[in-house]
Design a protein that fits this description.
Blueprint (H helix, E strand, L loop, with lengths): L1 E7 L2 E6 L4 E8 L8 E4 L4 E3 L11 E4 L1 E4 L3
Antiparallel strand pairs: 1-2, 1-6, 2-3, 3-4, 4-5, 5-7
Length: 70
C-alpha cells in the first residue's frame, strides 16, 4: 500500500491515502527508519522498504501492512 511518511512538530507521521488515515508513528524498529517495521498509534505495523539513510521526507513509499493491531 502507498504510505506517505512525513515529519511533524510532534515526530513522524504516516498517511495512507487509500484509507484517508493519518497516524503518528509510535515505534520504529531501525534507528534510520528504512528497511524495518514501524508501528502506528492505531496499532498497524508496516514494513518499510530499504532506502538510503539520508532519504528526504516527506516521501511516498510502497509499504506492506503486517499487522492491524488486533
Amino acid at each position: 500500500m502507498k504510505v506517505m511518511i512525513r515529519r511533524t512538530a510532534t515526530g513522524l507521521s504516516a498517511y495512507v491515502p487509500k484509507k484517508d488515515l493519518e497516524e503518528p508513528i509510535t515505534e520504529i524498529e531501525n534507528a534510520d527508519l528504512w528497511g524495518g517495521t514501524v508501528t502506528l498509534r492505531n496499532g498497524w505495523r508496516l514494513m518499510l522498504p530499504d532506502l538510503p539513510r539520508d532519504t528526504r521526507l516527506p516521501i511516498t513509499v510502497e509499504a506492506m501492512k503486517i499487522s492491524d493491531g488486533a
